[in-house]
TrEMBL record, chain A:
The chain crosses the membrane at residues 157-177, 183-201. It holds the Pfam family UQ_con. This is N-terminal E2 ubiquitin-conjugating enzyme. It catalyses: S-ubiquitinyl-[E1 ubiquitin-activating enzyme]-L-cysteine + [acceptor protein]-N-terminal-amino acid = [E1 ubiquitin-activating enzyme]-L-cysteine + N-terminal-ubiquitinyl-[acceptor protein]; S-ubiquitinyl-[E1 ubiquitin-activating enzyme]-L-cysteine + [E2 ubiquitin-conjugating enzyme]-L-cysteine = [E1 ubiquitin-activating enzyme]-L-cysteine + S-ubiquitinyl-[E2 ubiquitin-conjugating enzyme]-L-cysteine. CDD domains: UBCc_UBE2W. It comes from Acanthosepion pharaonis. Its EC number is 2.3.2.23, 2.3.2.25. Keywords: Acyltransferase, Membrane, Transferase, Transmembrane, Transmembrane helix, Ubl conjugation pathway. It comes from the Eukaryota. Gene3D superfamilies: Ubiquitin Conjugating Enzyme. GO terms for biological process: protein ubiquitination.
From TrEMBL, chain B:
Signal peptide: none annotated. GO terms for biological process: protein K48-linked deubiquitination; proteolysis. The keyword Cell inner membrane does not apply. InterPro entries: OTU_dom, Otubain, Papain-like_cys_pep_sf, Peptidase_C65_otubain, Peptidase_C65_otubain_sub1, Peptidase_C65_otubain_sub2. The active site is at 95, 98 (nucleophile), 272. PANTHER family: UBIQUITIN THIOESTERASE OTUBAIN-LIKE, UBIQUITIN THIOLESTERASE PROTEIN OTUB. This is Ubiquitin thioesterase. Keywords: Hydrolase, Protease, Thiol protease, Ubl conjugation pathway. Its EC number is 3.4.19.12.
Amino acid sequence: MKRLQKELQSLTKDPPPGLCVDIKSITKSMSEWIVDLEGASGTLYDGESFKLCFKFGPRYPFESPQVTFIGNNIPVHPHVYSNGHICLSILSDDWSPALSVQSICLSIISMLSSCREKKRPPDNGFYVKTAHKNPKKTKWWYHDDTFSFPFQHLFSLLPLSVYSVSFFANVLSLYFIPFMNLHSLSFSPYLHVFILFLHFLSAQQIC
Amino acid sequence: MVVGGRGTVAPPALVSRFSPDMADFHYDPEKNYDEQTLEQQRHIEQEVASTQALVSERLSLNQLIKDYSMEDNIYQQKIQDLRSRYRDIRKTRGDGNCFYRAFGFAYLERLLHDKSDIPRFKEVVNQSKTDLVALGYPQFTLDDFFDTFLDVLSRVESSCTPEELFDTFNDQGVSDYLIVTWRLLVTCYLQRNGEFFANFLEGHRDIKEFCCQEVEPMNKECDHIHITALTSAVGIPVRVEYMDRGEGGLVNHHDFPECSKPAITLLYRPGHYDILY
C-alpha cells in the first residue's frame, strides 16, 4: 500500500510522455488502477489511445500485477490478444520487485513502438476461447523479438536424423553433468536443459 | 525486450507418465491446461514452504548422514570428509533464493560478533544505490529495499541478538526485502562491469538482458557469475564446498575471489546452498 502510494505520487507528479493515470479509476484499497496510454508518434499506433487495467495482489511488489488492455481499442499487435492479454515476460517470469507501474507502461509502449506489422498473435482464436480471465493463469512462453518465426518452425527445418542425433547428444550430456567438475561447467547445464526443453516443445507440436 | 507467443502446455501429459492416478489422462489439444499447470507449480512451492524454514537452526553435520542412504558411498564418504573440517550446518529453503539468503545470514551473523566491517559495508551499499540511480533505476523503488536493508544492518550494529537476527531472516516480509537488495547489488556490479562479464554469457543476451532475466527476478538461482559479482561488489570473500557425485571421496572447494581468506563458508549440493560452520 505504501509502495503503491509512492508509485502513484511519482506517476502523477512527473508522468512520462504518453502516460496518464486515471485518478478517478483508483479504488480505495488502491488494488485497481487504469492508466491511459497514447501510441507514440511516428509509430504504427500514432494517434491511437489505449486503456491499461492494473490489478495488484496482496503480495505486490513480490508478485507482478495483472495487466490487461481494456475498453474499445485493444491494440492489434502480434503479442496482444484480442481479449486484452499481453505476452510480455516482465509480467510473469521476468518480473522483479524493483520494477514498477511506470516501468511496465514504458515496456508496453516500447513493445508497441517496435511493431512492424499490425496483426494478432497466430493462436489468438484458440487462446481467447480457452483462456482464463486472469492472464496470470496463463503459462507464457517467451522468445526474443528478433526471431522472425517461432522455434517450432526452426526444428521442422532440421532433417529428422540431425534432430535425433542432437536430441540424444543432449540427453547424454545431461547424464554426465553430475560427474563433471563443477568449476569448469559455468552455465552450460542450463543451456542443455533449455535445448532439451526446446526439443520437448517441438515434439509436442506447440510453441 | 523479450516478448512472445504462448503455448498450450503439455506438463500434465508429462505428469501422467509418472503419476498413477493420472494414468487415464489423455491430452486434449482443444483444451487449455495452463491453470492446472500453474496450480501444480504453486502446490509444489507451498509444500517446500511448509516443510523448510527460510533459515534453519544450527544443526549438527551428523544430520546430513540421514539425508542420504547408507549405501550411497560417494555421499557418505564426502560427509565424513566435511565432518573432519566442519561441525555444523544451517539449512536454507530451496526457493531459488538460497544463495543470497545463506550468504546474507552468514555475513550478518558474523557482523554480530565482529562489527569492524560494518562502516565499510554500509558505504559500499550506499554507493551501489547511487550507482543504480545513475544506471536509470527509479529512486523510489530502490528506497524501499535499501532502507529495509540498512535498517537491519543498523540493528545488527547496535542491539540485535542472534535470536532476533534469526527471526528477521525467517520473517518472509523482511527476509525477501533483503534478498531483493542483494540481487540489486549483483545487478549493479554486473552492469557497471558489463564489458568484462559479457565474455561469460552464452547465447544472444547482453548483460542488461541477463540481469533482467537471471538476477533481478526473485527465485532465480545463483550461478558462478552471480557469486563472482556479489563477492567482488561487497568485498566479502566466500568459500563454497562442492558436494556432488564426483569420484574421489573428498569435497572440493572454491574461494571467491580466488586466493582470498574466506569470511563465510557455504555448502553447495547440486542446485542448493546451505551455511557451514
